[in-house]
Amino acid sequence: MAGTRAETQGALQGKLEQIAAEEFPHRTAIHNIARRMVDRSVEPGERVLIWYDKPLGEPLASQLHLASIAKGASSITFFERDLAEDAQRATQIPISELEHFHDEQAEIIGDADVILIVRAEEDPTVITALSAERQRIYQEGYKRAHLARSKGEIKWSLILYPTPYEAEQDGRIYSEYLEEILKACDRPWEEVKRVQQKLVDKLNAGKTLTLIANEDAQNPMRRTHLVMSIEGMTFCNSTDGMNVPGSEVFSAPVMDSVNGQLFAEGRHIYDGHVMRDVYLRFENGKVVEAHAAEGDEGLQQILSQGVGARFMGEVALGTNPELSGPYINGLLNEKIAGTFHVAIGKCYEYKAYEGVPVNVDNGNTSDRTTNHWDITVSMRRNGKVVVDGEVIQKDGQFLDEDLAILNPR
Predict the structure, then answer these.
(1) Edge-to-edge strand ranges of the sheet holding 286-294
(2) What pLDDT digit, counting tens, does each position of 354-382 carry?
(3) Which of 100, 200, 249, 324 has its CA 20 to 30 A from that of 236?
(4) Domains observed in the chain
(5) What is the CA angle 184-186-187, rounded to 5?
């Protein structure tokens, strides 16, 4: 039986290689991404759920399917989402039914050992056609269905696949945009992980983290200056295991320790709300003032989603030099080398990350809010990362030459 199974898997691997060579120009890159996601996440005999947005996520979902079979998954289940169809249905059904909209999805996720996610909404703003109350119910239901991921109760790997919508929003030619993102997925990840560990060790030994950007902006409200305690917290060394493309080190600040202000230039999207030039001011961990030059109503709605929606659940440094940015896609933005990002909302509750014990739970857990909104700030213009008074990064460049692979070009 073992020999037959090995031969079958070998034949499937050959089929994957053939598909990669014969199909459209980016098929090889998609094939490699799928194989990497599966190799990092799936063990033989495990139950795999492939969750994807149709139709844009279908090519990668197909490759994930084949790669999972080749890896010896015991079962493979698909969950297809069409956000436009969801939005249309969510406007028509009774509120009582909407509250159970994601129950089936939650059940399917609960039956899996691993979830592989391809998010690729054709237009993520369609959900904002719902009333504020229906949006809240829909979004909270979705996040609760996926809560096992942030709690570390299920293995997962997620890619926000580049879409024409995002390229248009960023003023990019889609084919060039797609190629850039796919290239950012293909890094020397073992070397990146080794180098990032030195950065993690530095941060883990620190007590106070200061983040500064745009220090010379004439308008003081367009500057960023945040001070927070990281004492007792530890940072995760993240490459491409859970987010694709990857590259960051992340943790959470002590929840009530954050003071100062953040200004995130450009366009940002969360829960379908598009916002531009976001300003947040923190006092003792809480957002006490918030403005957006555009989309302010959406910003205020996001910050109203539970008592924890005005507190930080994550702080991180991006380290992928293949990403040029800026992007409207928050999960791409946050990985750009020479940036930092914070998540407004719930923290991760992992006890271990890729087998390494960590402490990233700062108490702003999912019972306080289901939100986790990553907001990225570039450090390349008059920016500094300061740990216990020592500048470790200036203008986006780490000062330690051993970290050069993490610097923007």
Answers:
(1) 286-294, 273-283, 259-270, 224-229, 208-213, 384-387, 390-394, 397-398
(2) 999 999 999 999 999 999 999 999 999 89
(3) 324
(4) 2-161 (3.40.1830.10), 189-406 (no CATH)
(5) 90
